[in-house]
Design goal:
The chain has eleven helices and six strands. A six-stranded parallel β-sheet has the order 2-1-3-4-5-6, with helices on both faces.
């Protein structure tokens, strides 16, 4: 059986090195790359093509949740396990919506991390015991038609990310830098958003977005 190929992403070198040492000692796991932030992670995943990415959340340049959204969007075969100190409800649910296959706290033991990586690589999902209630609540809410309704259902995940940044008052150039795409790509995406929101321009789109709750976390 082939080893599970893993990329480790964390902006703290001590934590990153510790994870590499821990994972390297596990049977059936091979660390094939590391990255110190979400943006670098996109390049490493592109080159290393891992089975699983162990991803921190709070990082400079591009956070782990946005990086997870891009990784799972472009490489759906790659599974992402979040390993973080943060266990608040919004962060856990945001990670799940971004496509994470697991969410563990940094206090988790080697066996728990190993199980999560194996489960993710096999196509499953695993969350630490302390997070079980939050995950159950998420799936319960997903079963309710009222909770499934989301503003602007025609928007793609990428368009939602751009709209969130627009609503936060960011310029096209700032959005391009944060998403690591060209200015032309952002302009085209913004134009598509205007069309889908039936907005005459940036101001109207921002008003509609803020009324729907966008722009609060960007």
């Amino acid at each position: 059986m082939n080893n599970i190929r893993v990329v480790v992403v964390d902006d703290h070198q001590i934590v990153r090195d510790g994870l590499v040492a821990l994972l390297g000692a596990l049977d059936g796991v091979e660390v094939v790359g590391t990255a110190e932030d979400g943006r670098e992670a996109l390049h490493v995943v592109e080159e290393a093509r891992p089975d699983v990415v162990v991803m921190d959340i709070q990082m400079p340049r591009l956070d782990g949740i946005e990086a997870t959204r891009f990784v799972t969007g472009k490489h759906p075969e790659v599974r992402v396990v979040m390993l973080t100190m943060n266990e608040d409800d919004d962060t856990v649910l945001s990670a799940m919506r971004a496509g994470a296959s697991g969410y563990l706290l940094k206090g988790s033991g080697a066996e728990e991390v190993h199980n999560a990586i194996r489960a993710a690589a096999a196509g499953g999902m695993i969350f630490g015991a302390s997070l079980a209630g939050k995950v159950a609540l998420y799936f319960t809410s997903m079963s309710s038609p009222q909770q499934q309704e989301e503003p602007f259902p025609d928007l793609t995940d990428r368009e939602r990310s751009v709209l969130d940044m627009l609503a936060a008052g960011k310029t096209n150039d700032q959005i391009a830098r944060e998403l690591y795409v060209s200015g032309k790509t952002v302009r085209n995406t913004v134009s598509t958003i205007y069309t889908k929101l039936h907005a005459a321009g940036r101001g109207e789109a921002i008003v509609k977005a803020r009324e729907a709750g966008y722009g609060k976390n960007s």
